[in-house]
Write a structure and sequence with these properties.
This protein is about 20% helix and about 35% strand. The chain is an alpha+beta fold. It has a domain of about 55 residues. A 5-stranded antiparallel beta sheet has the order 1-2-5-4-3, with no helix packed on it. A hairpin with a 4-residue loop joins strand 1 and strand 2. The longest helix has 17 residues. The N and C termini lie far apart (about 35 Å).
Length: about 80
């Protein structure tokens, strides 16, 4: 039986598949995703959420890399729906 999906559903499915492909290359055994729709920010924790000691902003990409010491522990994507 075929299922008819809307354009929004197709976009969501395509985005989820693309995200899954990219996440598989991250150095994490356990990760969590949180999305704040009001702020349009995606938070990716590569371990249990923990406080970062340093943040590096990737210029013109709207991406913040969060480090604890030398270890990458999280990624924040600003304006996530635009990526």
């Amino acid at each position: 039986m075929a299922t008819v999906r809307s354009k929004a559903q197709n976009k969501a499915v395509s985005g989820a598949i693309s995200l899954a492909r990219q996440i598989s290359s991250l150095p994490a055994a356990k990760l969590s995703l949180d999305y704040d729709a009001e702020a349009d920010v995606l938070y990716i924790s590569l371990k249990r959420p923990q406080k970062a000691t340093r943040t590096v902003e990737l210029e013109d990409e709207g991406v913040l890399l969060r480090y604890r010491g030398k270890e990458l522990v999280g990624i924040t994507v600003l304006d996530a729906s635009q990526h």
